[in-house]
Design brief:
- The protein is of the alpha+beta class and 189 residues long.
- The chain contains five helices and seven strands, in the order ββββαααβααββ.
- Strands 1-2-4-3 form a four-stranded mixed β-sheet, with no helix packed on it.
- α3 crosses α5 (158-170).
- Its main location: nucleus.
Length: 189
């Protein structure tokens, strides 16, 4: 198989993008309607692969960006994803600019069957149930603590959640990936 390669710069660094073709006379399907122009903005779909310690994107689709609002939208989506991953999802109180010190929860959403938990025992069942559902839906065994908390944050305070995680760890129901990365947890089953 032959390949056509590009070097893409997303302002965080350069990354090679590879499109494979069947033979020398054909052009990859993803590049059939694409006209190359240096310094153009493009949207690339593909899979990140590592070969000999070098990361590259194996492209499956490429299209030129004509509306620069797409770039802005991508940057905003990246920022929001990072914030949710590192800070957790906003609660209804935060969204409604309510005072979280009052301790009132205004939302009553139902996400993955989450119910209000007031004790560690109830919370343990809820967290394990949510983790099982998240693993089943994403097909990934390792979960970030803040991703799990983002699902239960509307019905459970951080202190109760953290106490629940600590007890699940002590009882061996869940395990940490490593001491260095203690925020990554998985079910021990």
């Amino acid at each position: 198989m032959l390949r056509i390669g590009f070097e893409v710069n997303d302002n965080t660094g350069c990354c090679p993008v590879i499109f494979f073709q069947k033979d020398q006379s054909s052009r990859p399907q993803a590049l059939k309607d694409f006209q190359y122009e240096q310094f153009a903005y493009v949207r690339i779909f593909g899979t990140v692969r590592v070969f000999k310690e070098t990361k590259a994107i194996v492209g499956t689709h490429i299209k030129r960006i004509h509306k620069f609002s797409e770039v802005t939208n991508h940057l905003l989506q990246t920022f929001v994803s990072h914030q949710v991953r590192t800070q957790g999802a906003l609660t209804s109180q935060e969204l409604n600019n309510e005072d979280p010190a009052k301790g009132k929860r205004t939302s009553n959403p139902v996400t993955l069957g989450v119910k209000q938990s007031s004790s560690v025992d109830d919370s343990m069942q809820t967290v394990v149930q949510i983790m099982r559902e998240m693993v089943k839906r994403s097909d990934v065994r390792m979960l970030h603590i803040k991703d799990v908390y983002a699902v239960v944050s509307h019905v459970q305070e951080w202190e109760l959640f953290k106490e629940t995680i600590d007890r699940l760890l002590r009882e061996g129901v869940i395990v940490q990936q490593s001491e260095q990365n203690s925020d990554i947890i998985l079910l021990s089953e």
